Amino acid sequence: MTESATVQIPRELLPRDGRFGSGPSKVRPEAVTALQNVGTTYLGTSHRQSTVKDVVGRLRDGLKELFSLPEGYEVVLGNGGATQFWDIATFSLIKERSQHLSFGEFSSKFASAVASAPHLLEPDVIKSEPGTHPVLRVDASIDLYALTHNETSTGVMMKIERPQGTEALVAVDATSGAAGLLVDPYNFDCYYFSPQKCFASEGGLWIALMSPRAMARVREIKEGERYIPATLDLSIALDNSLMNQTYNTPSLATIFLTVHQIEWFLENGGLKFSTSRCDESSEILYGWAESSSFATPFVKEADSRSRVVGTIDFDPSIDALKVAKILRANGVVDVEPYRKLGRNQIRVAMFPAIEPSDVAQLTKSIDYVVRSGF
Ligand SMILES: *Cc1c(COP(=O)(O)O)cnc(C)c1O
What we know:
It is a single chain. By secondary structure, this protein is of the alpha/beta class. The protein folds into 2 domains: about 10-30 and about 270-370, Aspartate Aminotransferase, domain 1, CATH 3.90.1150; about 45-265, Type I PLP-dependent aspartate aminotransferase-like (Major domain) (Aspartate Aminotransferase, domain 2). The chain is built from 10 helices and 12 strands. Helix 1 (about 30-35) crosses helix 7 (about 250-265) and helix 2 (about 50-65) crosses helix 7. The relative contact order is 0.19. Bound molecules: pyridoxal-5'-phosphate. Pyridoxal-5'-phosphate (PLP) binds near residues 148, 173 and 176.
């Protein structure tokens, strides 16, 4: 036993499942069992044949239903995750100039990717302090607004609203927000994410919900002079997606696990079901922190407090990293703070797969550790 395991948390206080990481995040055991059941009929078979194409079709149809996508919207997918999608957007969605709301690690990375692209103008980057989010400013030079539904590094969420008085596209990084937070598809043109967060799957894939205007932009850029590497060419991804395929070989396990989670949502009431689980978990977490003598929600504005990733500051007298280490030794993992934020805090994922009752048990476990004086 490691030194940090000197505090043994009683079993009746521990969560049943100790995974609270913000990505990769908890994969539901039911999904893994289902994957095992298709271990010789689906895994290891061609992604160009109907066995796999049918599952990709279920992924695309399921997301259309889950997000109530209007007529004409399409679900597009490809390899490389949300990070890859920033480069794709740089080549295939931004015409000349984008505006970025930058309020943490992820939103700032997209802005940097655009800033270093020689074929685009200097982006307009609006920043705000960690723990808050900036507000969009309509500007005639902007042809794409880059928003982030949930900034995973700080635990700040923002409401997605289409700006008035502009024809520019609205692209939303929804990697940790999609399916955990409500959104109205009329407010976005491109809502993209990786499935290792609220979709309780594995990384490596990006999925984008695209409006007809976003697809028209892709075609328009493609017809122009710009050099677009094939893996960053959204028109190629779109053409393949319409045939329930990807441009190159995807992870079949990732696709399967994603579909399993989408269908679990749909069988239980769709987006209302998935988001209500996050609502419940976050009420438990923030309610606990607000009544605690040593913990406080990091995000001051209650409306910006994420319902999918909670950040909780600890009193300086209690070392959050040590608490996280003791939890880890007891099988409760990945509540360490986001490394670059550098605060004495814990970060807790509250994605739909995570049981609200386990979040309650987590708070009891933390209280026990703190009361022990380590
Ligand atoms: C996790 C995350 C990403 C990065 O996703 P990858 O799949 O690792 O590329 C991007 N944006 C947000 C908001 C995230 O939470």
